[in-house]
Queue: 2 jobs
Job 1
Amino acid sequence: MPVLHAEKAEVSWDNEKSKWQVRIHVGDEVIRRHWKGSKDADPETLRTDAVRTAKDEGYDLAGDKVASKSERVAPEGPAPSVCKVGQALSPVNPGDFAATPKSRR
């Protein structure tokens, strides 16, 4: 059976089920799986469990692509500066802010 590559995964505690949930991102699809574990598990344990769960499901997932709890996976490439949700800032030219004389009244 061929193994599919997972781009990233996110791990969080599911309060309703009292289990950990991993969201494995493969292309446009997101596969959700739960497992039992201690709620206060350290990030390395969560990362290892997420990689194992992905492997059990037939996905190849690198440990550095797993974010747990409040951690985030760094996107590949440079991140744009953002001022509002979804609105990227353009590079600033210092000359755009040249002092202009104030008009006298």
Job 2
Amino acid sequence: MWWGKCERGEGTAGVDEICEILLTEQERSVMQLVADGDANVVIGHKLFASEKTIERVLGRVYVKYGLAGSSKLENPRVKATLIFRGLVNFEVQVDS
């Protein structure tokens, strides 16, 4: 296993590619709308999905970003947005 940090414009060879493919297209679409400040119900309308689907997608993003199980006081939505925008680093685990 290898640990690296996803950082925009920096990192060990291969890390940037990992950061690019870490999220699916659906997850990136949802995160872009979250980063724009849209509520789950609004995101659902824009992407023709239910609010529950958006919640499940965000749950997968939180797991990938290591935010699963975060308390509401830690606000995983805000942390995920900061990571998505490249404003906060996080570690990814890669099996070799």
